[in-house]
Amino acid sequence: MIVVRWLLALALAAAVAAVLGRTWARAGASGGPWGTAFGRVRRDGAGMLALRFLIFVAAVALFAHWLAPDDPNRIDLALASRAPSLSHPFGTDIYGRDVLSRVVHGARISLSVGFLAVLLSITVGTAYGAIAGYVGGRTDAVLMRVIDALLSIPRILVLLAIFALWGRVSLGALVLILGLTGWFATSRLVRAQVLSLKTEEMIVAARALGARHRRILWRHILPGVTSTVVVAATLGIGNVIILEAGLSFLGVGVQAPTASWGNMISDGVSNVAGLWWMSLFPGLAIVLTVMAFNIIGDALRDALDPREIQAA
Amino acid sequence: MRALVARRLLQAVVIVAIAATVTFLLVQLAPGDPLIELATNPRVPPEVRDRLIARWGLDRPIHEQYALYIRNLASGDLGWSLSQSRPVADAIADALPSTLRLMSVALLGAFLLGVTTGVIRAARRGSVADHALGAGTLVFYSMPDFWLAIMAMLVFAYWIPMFPTSGETTAGLYEYLSPFGKLIDRLHHIVLPATTLVLLLAAIIARYQRAAFLDVASQDFVRTARAKGLRERAVLWRHVLRNALLPVITLLGLALPMLIGGAVFIEQVFAWPGMGRLVVAAIAARDHTLVTGIVIMGSVLVTLGSLLADILYAVADPRLRLHAR
User: Fold this and answer.
1) What are the structural domains of chain A?
2) Is the pLDDT score of A312 beyond 50?
3) Which residues pair with B86 in a beta bridge?
């Protein structure tokens, strides 16, 4: 029965990927930078494979309750510390909880924390970078020096300091903290892009026609930085997933008993020689998911690079 | 050149000052009052408490506290660590050498491996080697450092017991070894943690190096070199590689925060007695002064690294020296 559910999830993921591919093919035929970019990603074998995998992981996260063979938090000491077998493909942990079920539910945490935190950081980073680049002058210089300083503090140390000072935090606060410490590099990228856009004729023309700053920012600047931001966001999600796992590994991120890939690795680490499956499988889940995000991010970057488009 | 160094030095001071301000604000925003904590902690003798309150102005308004804080930092006083019962600066001074040893070995290895990988990929663009190394780079690039460390420990310390699982030296044995034996013992312990860091950092360096190499290879002077009939090998080694190594110097500034982050996790897994372990222990003990001290120390290290990278770049690239004048 459970196998049928997994096959259904796989089929669903394949169907979504096929529909997306079809849409992109149409967009590619219609031209424009995004159409061309998606068309190129569609022809990129690794990129499409990564996309299919991510849709599958998203489906697993979405239907976790339905796909997990067991309750991720059900403790059964009679089943404790079992090696992988047919009934427990990823084994069980020291409390007899099914590791596969916990990995499945962990996908929900990792993906949603990664997605929401990056959404927050690209929003703040884009706004900050766009303002710095657009206003320019002394404001820009001051804003960018602040970014230099913020970037010089290693992010993990800032996060650890925050958790040391605030103690254990809720999931929402975790997203907020990860998002608010992750936008510095994005703002720098956006600023550089805005600086070069600002001098372009279309902007000068819009100004000459009497457009307000707000309109120029929304209608002309923002669309120009979208590709930079999308690539940064795709690569950023992978980064945040790794960070969240690291924090949970150190015991300050997602708190037990909620399963996250990071705290599952940490659960197994004290006896990794005996219970290797406890740390191996959640780690593999992280590597594959982050790799998929990185492949898509790279593919999008190559596809959106105007030099490459001209060469094609 | 001197003007460039002076300007960058001034920038570095400003950056560290801003970083210290951010840390100060974080502490101020955090719930809980350090005064109450000091007053209620039974491990603080009353005279020490009075001295700390006077030295850090904990009973003064916030702007005076800030001024005192910056002044104390400037004189090298990072505060008093409650969990270690000694100055924060002393605790850091004890842990820093271990971290620096691990980081310098990792940095050296990562640059060698990363540059080589990047150059091979770029010089043989599109070949099987390029694709295979690219896939390998991507895997390590996508891997959480602590997980790689755990898996390395599982395979090379437990399943195939080649290397020790933890520490920087063999406890109880190290003191009795000959100087050469001590060196061997240290090397034996550093292999696994350093290799983990090398693989992760080299993956990043290789990506940059490949891009830099391809960037240079498409420039006009390379076409000229080919057009005048130089052999491919001479073109790649003498004309492309020498110029493609320049941008990698800036990576030194980028590698340091990466290494510090990696050190936090890898020191934790391998029980390496450095700053990373110190900060995790400080968090567990809720020792705020120690944590903030390490954060400031970390940003000083990063700033120094990027300062060094900028100066090295100017030394290596005469064009920059001209502009700075």
Assistant:
1) 69-79+90-295 (1.10.3720.10)
2) no
3) B81
Q: Which of B242, B238, B262, B216 is nearest to B109 (CA)?
A: B262
Q: Answer yes or no: pTM beyond 0.90.
A: no
- Residue predicted with more confidence, B160 or A40: B160
Q: Report B:24-43 residues touching A (Cβ under 8 A).
A: 26-27, 29-32
- Residue A158: the pLDDT is 86
Per-residue model confidence (pLDDT) at position B32: 65
Contact (Cβ atoms closer than 8 angstroms) between residue B203 and residue B114: yes
Establish if B213 touches chain A: CB-CB under 8 angstroms: no
Residue B89 has which token pair? Answer: 């600066």
What secondary structure letter does DSSP report for A68? -
Compute the distance between CA of residue A50 and CA of residue B139 in angstroms, rounded to an integer. Answer: 13
Across the interface, of A167, A249, A276, the residue whose CB is closest to B146 is A249
**Residue in B closest to A285 by C-alpha:** B143
Residue A151 with chain B: CB contacts under 8 Å = 257
Which of these, B98, B140, B106, B83, lies nearest to B271 by C-alpha position? B98
Q: Which pLDDT belongs to residue B40?
A: 67
pLDDT above 90 as % of chain B: 26
Q: B203-239 pLDDT, tens per residue?
A: 999 988 888 888 888 888 888 888 888 888 888 888 8
Return mean pLDDT, chain A. 85
Chain A contact for B150, CB < 8 A?
yes
Kindly determine whether residue B264 and residue A157, on different chains, have CB atoms separated by under 8 Å: yes
CA nearest B149 in A: which residue?
A: A269
**pLDDT higher than threshold 50 for residue A309:** no
For residues A235-270, one letter each, b for 16 or more C-beta atoms within 10 angstroms of the residue's C-beta and e for the rest, the string is bbbbbbbbbbbbbbbbbbbbeeebbbbbbbbbbbbe
Alpha carbons A115 and A175: distance in angstroms, whole number = 9
Q: Which residues, in sequence order, are CB contacts of B48 under 8 Å at separation 6+?
A: B80
- Residue A104 pLDDT class (50, 70, 90 cuts): very high
Give the pLDDT of residue B325. 45
Residue whose token pair is 């990506």: B207
| CB neighbour burial string for A164-198, b if at least 16 within 10 angstroms, e if fewer | bbbeebebeebbebbbebbbbbbbbbbbebbeebb
